[in-house]
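Tip: read the tokens left to right.
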């Protein structure tokens, strides 16, 4: 268990070092770059990016509004490749190859149902939800969502999300000593929870495809 905890902490440490390098080195452009990477379905959580920007706001090195704005712009830019890929391949492409981006046929069907029921507001709502916000762009493209409404709702939803996480970072900076104490006290439990949730999410998406491939080989 101790080795597992150290592994998770090592992974988080690498991600945080990358985030710090990007934001410390490039400022608001770095915030946008980091958030664009996350929106490209690359596992670089916004929950690490924007709170650090908020911490810099608390330190007087950034402006809260510009940090949130940069994060939202990055989300939009990072969403474009997935949107265009989904638009190019359509639903059959997503259902066949979505597993590589952790988008299952079930989630594709759910996204289709949301869009049919709620319209473009779906993209605004999804952009303010953990996990879902990262992967909604691929189904949006596959469903031929109108480009500009998709961009506008993605920006507005992401802006709200970025504001919230930036504020978390400000609170962290205001109470740095207490948070450090709590982290060292519960770091093992936190690391295990992160690992379990991450493993469960990946397995949940990969398992159906493994079963399908196995059944195909048996036929």
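Filled-in amino acids:
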């Amino acid at each position: 268990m101790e080795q597992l905890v150290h592994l998770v902490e090592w992974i988080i440490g690498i991600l945080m070092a990358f985030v710090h390098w990007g934001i410390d080195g490039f400022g608001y452009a770095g915030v946008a770059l980091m958030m664009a990477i996350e929106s490209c379905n690359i596992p670089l959580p916004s929950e690490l990016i924007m709170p650090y920007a908020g911490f810099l706001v608390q330190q007087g090195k950034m402006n809260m509004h510009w940090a949130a704005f940069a994060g939202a712009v990055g989300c939009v830019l990072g969403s474009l490749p997935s949107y265009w890929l989904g638009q190019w391949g359509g639903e059959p492409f997503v259902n066949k190859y979505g597993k590589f981006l952790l988008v299952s046929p079930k989630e594709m069907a759910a996204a289709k149902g949301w869009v049919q029921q709620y319209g473009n507001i779906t993209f605004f709502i999804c952009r303010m939800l953990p996990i879902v916000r990262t992967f909604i762009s691929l189904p949006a493209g596959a469903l031929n969502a109108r480009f500009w409404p998709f961009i506008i709702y993605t920006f507005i939803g992401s802006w709200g999300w970025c504001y919230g996480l930036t504020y978390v970072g400000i609170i962290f900076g205001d109470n740095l000593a207490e948070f450090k104490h709590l982290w060292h006290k519960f770091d093992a439990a936190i690391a295990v929870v992160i690992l379990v949730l991450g493993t469960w999410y990946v397995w949940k998406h990969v398992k159906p495809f493994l079963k399908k491939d196995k059944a195909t080989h048996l036929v």
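The radius of gyration is 19 Å. The longest helix spans residues 176-218.
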